[in-house]
Amino acid sequence: MIKARTYDVFLSFRGEDTCDGFVSHLYKDLRRKNIETFIDSEKLPRGDEISEAPLTAIEGARVSVIVFSKDYASSKWCLDELAKIMDCNKCVVPVFYGEDPSDVRKQRGSVADAFAKHEENFKHDVEKVNSWRSALTSAANLSGWDSKEIR
């Protein structure tokens, strides 16, 4: 059996929202400080399942940084990663990038809109949607950074 590679940091983010700005700068700076960081740069075709590489990286990471952006909750891939991160129960650092932490925690605004669509699309798998909701609430309850308060 191949041993999973250990990372210092696993970055969870919605690529369309943050990849070409905030996340790319964060990744570059972490790497510059020799912090081994997993970033999944593959584009997942619509309807595909999350690959094994990110899930294995989550298990091997010491810290997970979750970048909650406007459309984070609309991605089932992001929510699958989030559920796995929260199941691993390691150090988790939420970053609220342009999103109000309270809106994420209470699942209002864009998060509520995303979950309304998930509930429609996953009528047959209510448990999955409930696990995503629970993971999102747990992560948003953690102390993190709000981009609106960082200068």
Automatic annotation (TrEMBL):
What is any one of the record's Gene Ontology cellular component terms?
Answer: nucleus
One GO term under biological process is: signal transduction
| Pfam family of the protein (one) | TIR
Where does the record place a coiled coil?
A: none
InterPro entries from the xrefs? TIR_dom, Toll_tir_struct_dom_sf
- Statement: the UniProt record of this protein carries the keyword Membrane: no
NAD in keyword set: yes
Tell me what organism the protein belongs to: Gossypium hirsutum (Upland cotton)
Q: Which residues form the TIR domain?
A: 5-151
Keywords attached to this Swiss-Prot or TrEMBL record, sorted alphabetically, are: NAD
Source species, domain of life: Eukaryota
Protein's UniProt name: Disease resistance protein RPV1-like
